[in-house]
Write a structure and sequence with these properties.
- The chain crosses the membrane at residues 20-38, 50-69, 97-115, 121-140, 152-169, 189-207, 249-278, 298-319.
- The chain has helices at 11-17, 20-41, 46-74, 78-83, 86-89, 94-118, 122-136, 150-168, 191-218, 220-225, 231-235, 237-244, 247-260, 275-287, 291-321; strands at residues 176-180, 185-189.
- By secondary structure, it is mainly alpha-helical.
- The chain has one domain: Orthogonal Bundle (Farnesyl Diphosphate Synthase).
- β1 and β2 (185-189) form a beta hairpin.
- The radius of gyration is 20 Å and the shape is globular.
- It starts with 10 loop residues before the first helix and ends with a helix.
């Protein structure tokens, strides 16, 4: 029997392949980083911002598409390959999808190299680490996504890494720098500034990692079948849910701490008004852990919180200029 021909990767299928809502979530730390650069140092570089936006969007799309291809090939469950993965369900050519993802990776690498040339060599180390994580998140004999550190790595890389680079390429006084000559090198930075940036990004770091946590909670049985040792698998269903309910609380505690320590404007406390919506999303997920029904609640919590922080900070900056 002849196998049916592969479907064409249409625009609609491409958006499903890269999970567009998750890409919107990854845009939040980028926007916050750009705004915070202006709030903290009155720093803004339009060319660097545009180059990084292209690079960040490319790597974000690459990660999700590449993950889908790797999960398709590595799956031990034939039912998942054909019914639980978009490459199987929509009968896409995995080689062509991979070729497209590698093209996006090349765009991201090129954008990164241009930014290294325009800023400082230390960005080569930071960007190289981020791209390495993006590749080995689902690639290799022990992919990061199949280990119990996946949520932490995802949150730190996307939540802090994106925010930090967006801040880094815009400010005149950079918090990290690498000087290199034929005989020596020196890496130096400001611990107080780095600590401040971690605190500002903490809500996004936490809620970004929580998206992966929610995904893995809903996939516990599937992950066991496909030999994925995620944090949710290690904790078990009940303990994972017990922790999940408190993760957003930590994110909102970080917002309060950032205002109390004067690293974010007082108006940021307006974000706390969203807590009833956040709590409702938590409750919905605790009732039903099915990806197509409630996974979006974790994404919505990040979009609501980070989006509100971005709007409040932008409004504060505009008000300060009036």
């Amino acid at each position: 029997m002849t196998e049916a021909p592969y479907q064409k990767l249409t625009g609609r299928l491409f958006l499903e392949l890269i999970r567009l809502p998750v890409k919107l979530a990854s845009a939040m730390p980028f926007a916050l980083g750009v705004l915070y650069a202006w709030y903290d140092q009155r720093g803004f570089n339009g060319v660097n911002t545009l180059i990084y936006f292209v690079g960040q969007l490319s790597i974000a799309c690459f990660v999700t598409g590449f993950n889908n291809v790797q999960d398709y090939y590595k799956s031990k469950d034939e039912h998942y390959r054909q019914k639980g993965n978009i490459i199987g369900t929509d009968h896409l050519n995995p080689r062509r999808v991979m070729a497209l993802m590698l093209a996006l990776l090349a765009v991201a690498v090129l954008a990164g190299l241009i930014l290294v040339w325009r800023t400082n060599l230390v960005l080569l180390l930071i960007g190289g680490a981020a791209i390495g994580i993006a590749i080995f998140y689902t690639f290799g004999p022990m992919p990061i996504s199949r280990l119990p550190i996946g949520e932490v790595v995802s949150g730190v890389t996307e939540g802090f890494g994106t925010f930090f680079i967006a801040y880094f390429v815009n400010v005149p006084n950079r918090p990290l720098a690498l000087d290199l000559s034929w005989q020596s090198f020196s890496l130096y930075g400001s611990v107080p500034v780095l600590a401040k940036l971690v605190l500002v990004a903490a809500p996004i770091i936490i809620l970004d990692g929580n998206i992966m946590f929610a995904n893995n909670i809903g996939d516990i049985q599937e992950d066991i079948t496909n030999h994925r040792a995620t944090m949710a698998v290690y904790l078990g269903h009940d303990r994972a849910l017990a922790i999940y309910r408190w993760v957003p609380v930590a994110a909102y505690a970080a917002i309060i701490a950032a205002v109390f320590l004067h690293v974010m404007p007082l108006a940021t406390l307006l974000v706390l008004l969203l807590w009833p919506l956040i709590h409702r999303n938590i409750a919905r997920f605790l009732q039903v852990q099915v990806r197509r029904l409630t996974f979006k609640t974790a994404v919505n919590n990040l979009l609501l919180t980070a989006g509100a922080e971005v709007l409040v900070l932008a409004g504060w900056l505009v008000w300060q200029q009036v």
